[in-house]
């Protein structure tokens, strides 16, 4: 079982519009409503793979109830943490030419009592977990050190933990030695405080994070592929992608694929790459199932092309 923790989940509303004209009445041509948050997406991807998952998330108000109902409808077990403030509602405006405008609400401010209840719920639910995946930004009321406290508690209970966050929360958590961290290229550059121009730059940045405490670094490099840097070696993975339809949730799908395949080594990286490549070829935030994966399109090698210039260098 893979337990996911999403401290700041959302109810995501997407409206399809012909174009976005400020100050005008715009009539949507389509709409959908989804449960949102990086950890939520990991749970959705794990469920699509036919594996068991439990999603821990603070939920409040009518939007929180809708998030729980939508997850239950997808067959996902939910361990809700009741909070006084309403769960945030995010809005996406998708124009016909592919431009996406997102409006993300701040979400509720958690009290110290709610913070402790969230930690206790994770502890109680993690007894049967092979991995805990903690993902996304922290809501108001939780200090950047909150993820560090969660990693420490998970390790004290003997559970492996994967962390997908950024900024001060990521740096603070490194001192507790999370088993896996999963930054993208921008987050990796931010963490080490320098630009990334080549795949070799990304390898060096990942090694720096390991020196600061990360057990392994699974780094998403967008269209260039993914890196895995761990104690046993360094691997680079990529995949053929015919058509990119949406990259929403692709990184979350990759993390799910990595953990499903054991969470270490080149086989797990191959699974991560396959899941990420499948996700970008599906519409919206649809998570891939086994039928969507194309393992033959994936290449994983220890001969990392360190001199290759990134398609989108990070300055």
Automatic annotation (TrEMBL):
Concerning InterPro entries, the annotation shows: 1-PFruKinase (IPR022463), PfkB_dom (IPR011611), Ribokinase-like (IPR029056), Tagatose/fructose_Pkinase (IPR017583)
Under which main EC class is this enzyme filed?
Answer: transferase
Q: Does the keyword Lipoprotein apply?
A: no
Documented EC number(s): 2.7.1.56
From the Swiss-Prot or TrEMBL record, what is one GO molecular function term?
1-phosphofructokinase activity
Q: Does the keyword ATP-binding apply?
A: yes
What are the entry keywords?
ATP-binding, Kinase, Nucleotide-binding, Transferase
List each copy of the Carbohydrate kinase PfkB domain by range: 16-285
The record's annotation in Pfam families points to: PfkB (PF00294)
Q: Which domain of life is it from?
A: Bacteria
Family, as annotated: Belongs to the carbohydrate kinase PfkB family.
Q: What is this protein called?
A: 1-phosphofructokinase
Q: Which organism is it from?
A: Streptomyces ureilyticus
Gene that produces this protein = pfkB
